């Protein structure tokens, strides 16, 4: 519990490592090791302080987006593990303000990088699956980006986006009784 009081002080330096341009300017094994170690460090901290990592969700989400775009597969895999953990932490919080995630999603849904689109679609699917989150109310924030993904060359993303659009339409029809 006392770690919660220091969550910001613990997580901020690690989050900075996700976007440290000096560390990521030259490809190579040293950069890969630093990137993976930063991801691993944040994962380990998140396992311990759980809800404390959500105090700065914008930086966490931004860091995940940066890690997802890395060219090194080991860093991407670490980012995916970290993303799953952060999602679990978000879901287990009873008083989490889910509306704080919508601007983060809306800002990144237009990013053309397929890995970031995968991350964003995953968060939309997660939030849509939670009964306490009314994604229809937030639809104007991310619908245009969802249509952009529907026009994507990537078949998997089109299928995921189409599934979200169909689910939204079906829910809306069910609500209106048509």
From TrEMBL:
SUPFAM superfamilies xref list: ARM repeat
Pfam families hit by this protein: Vac14_Fab1_bd
Highest taxon in the source lineage: Eukaryota
Gene3D superfamilies found in the cross-reference section: Leucine-rich Repeat Variant (1.25.10.10)
Protein name: Protein VAC14 homolog
